[in-house]
Request: fold
Amino acid sequence: MKTKMIWANLVSHDLQKTIQFYTDLGFKQNGKETDELVSFAFGDNNFIINFFIEKRLENAVKGKLTNTKNDNEIIFSLSAASREEVDLWYDKVKEIGGTIFSEPENFEVGYTFGFADPDGHKFNFLYWPGM
Reply:
């Protein structure tokens, strides 16, 4: 057996805010949004993250969702080509109102910072030499 693809499904409490945030970061929508869902493609391999309204995602997981404003669920790492690019992403995230939870810092041989989107989903931009 072999898995062909993997994607993520997260909650959005306001699809229009989600659309605005990820569009402002420069990511492209994966298809047209609906009343229950918007999707974005990330990276060269077009990793898809679907953002569902709460009711729809709760139905899919057959239970309650975590409150990402207070609790942690996962962190997605986004690669950057250089330390300077990490700093450019940092400036962009701050400019569009993202929440910085970890200021830019050296991490082993790399360089990174962490931010959360309007729903509290956590990401970091990471430069790692040779990656």
Q: What stands out?
A: The first strand starts at residue 8 and ends at 12. The beta strands are 8-12, 28-29, 37-42, 47-53, 75-79, 99-107, 110-116, 122-127.
